[in-house]
Amino acid sequence: RSPGLCAAVHYLVRGQLGWLGLTIACAVPGYAAQILSVLWFREDGRPPSCWLLVLHLLQLGLWKRYWDVLRMAAKTGGSARAGEVLAQHGDACVLRLLEALLQTLPHLLLQAYVVVAVEPAGFVPGVSAGLSLLSLAWALVSYSHFACLLRPGHLCPPAAAILCLLLWRTGMLGTRVLALVLFARLYSFWVFAVAGVHWLLMSFWLVAQQTDIVAQPCRWRLFNCLVGAVYIFCYVNVRPGPSKYRVTVFYAVSTQDILYSTWM
């Protein structure tokens, strides 16, 4: 929460109420992950208490989940209830990824635009954007790490592999966000046309893959549209099995975006 809080205080002190309002607005979508966390607590047979609801209202519900995972792992000693620990860890990773995509990513885009177009020498917006980038990259790495643990026969990846994955995610997200911000700085609202074309292509591509994560047709369409929007910035594997061909298609479409932007 520190990047958003520091940026909000920075804009409040400087009297930039417009950027302050946008910074606060970026925090609102994060409550979707908090609401989903409360619902999952209820489905797990743990009716949320008033204290738990207050934590989620303060957007600290996911910290409570991570604390529960650490406490459970310490009690079990890594053997008796390893499956339950993994399930609780998976819930926390998925919710953290959702929160990062809904809250951290818009905040990153906003602060990056401020640094590029409004306040190039702004230290606080720059640090806020950098911390948001690392937070988003780590959320993606945590999700990938959990997905790797779920595969049968796969061991926990070493620290060097996780570090390389973090560097890859940070570089991919950083360059993508910087390209979009620079394009918005030069061509203003035309950036929405480029992002819209990419979103449509990715959404139709997901439909063609027949992803069966969501069974109900209405929610299935919504899921494909949401993941298609995520694919504007990064690739998230939502299907089991090898993903090298899907990653190739993703980067091919991303290259097409760059060529389209250059042509415009």
Automatic annotation (TrEMBL):
<protein>
    <recommendedName>
        <fullName>XK-related protein</fullName>
    </recommendedName>
</protein>
<keyword id="KW-0472">Membrane</keyword>
<feature type="transmembrane region" description="Helical">
    <location>
        <begin position="129"/>
        <end position="150"/>
    </location>
</feature>
<dbReference type="InterPro" id="IPR050895">
    <property type="entry name" value="XK-related_scramblase"/>
</dbReference>
<dbReference type="Pfam" id="PF09815">
    <property type="entry name" value="XK-related"/>
</dbReference>
<keyword id="KW-1003">Cell membrane</keyword>
<feature type="transmembrane region" description="Helical">
    <location>
        <begin position="220"/>
        <end position="238"/>
    </location>
</feature>
<keyword id="KW-1133">Transmembrane helix</keyword>
<comment type="similarity">
    <text>Belongs to the XK family.</text>
</comment>
<dbReference type="InterPro" id="IPR018629">
    <property type="entry name" value="XK-rel"/>
</dbReference>
<feature type="transmembrane region" description="Helical">
    <location>
        <begin position="19"/>
        <end position="41"/>
    </location>
</feature>
<feature type="transmembrane region" description="Helical">
    <location>
        <begin position="189"/>
        <end position="208"/>
    </location>
</feature>
<dbReference type="GO" id="GO:0005886">
    <property type="term" value="C:plasma membrane"/>
</dbReference>
<keyword id="KW-0812">Transmembrane</keyword>
